[in-house]
């Protein structure tokens, strides 16, 4: 009976460690960045691992009041590409942060902890 209680306490301790490690890893995501471009480099968007747009560069030659739709499309494309490209970096960072804390379960996605 006492063995089970000790196992349960140990498990609770591991979960607390995992939780604090995940919190720390999530706060570090601000330092992981990805930059993507569209329009052959005329628009560049930089996002961080917390999926926040941190900078946007637009070539001045693109600024044309008569063709604002093209500029909007290029901005959207660059931001979406950067957000898509940062995903593997986020996953890798979170996996490294929790390495050895969890059994290797196929299909386990730690990205859900970020929401």
TrEMBL record:
Keyword terms: Coiled coil, Cytoplasm, DNA-binding
Gene3D superfamilies registered for this protein in UniProt: Nucleoid-associated protein YbaB-like domain
Compartmental location: Cytoplasm, Nucleoid
Membrane-crossing residue ranges in chain numbering: none
Coiled-coil spans in chain: 8-35
Domain of life: Bacteria
InterPro entries for this protein: YbaB-like_sf, YbaB/EbfC
Classification via Pfam families: YbaB_DNA_bd
Family: Belongs to the YbaB/EbfC family.
Job description of the protein: Binds to DNA and alters its conformation. May be involved in regulation of gene expression, nucleoid organization and DNA protection.
Entry-linked HAMAP family: DNA_YbaB_EbfC (MF_00274)
Quaternary structure, from the entry: Homodimer.
PANTHER family hit by this protein: NUCLEOID-ASSOCIATED PROTEIN YBAB (PTHR33449:SF1)
Protein name: Nucleoid-associated protein HWI92_17850
Organism: Dyadobacter sandarakinus
Lineage, broadest ranks: Bacteria, Pseudomonadati, Bacteroidota, Cytophagia, Cytophagales
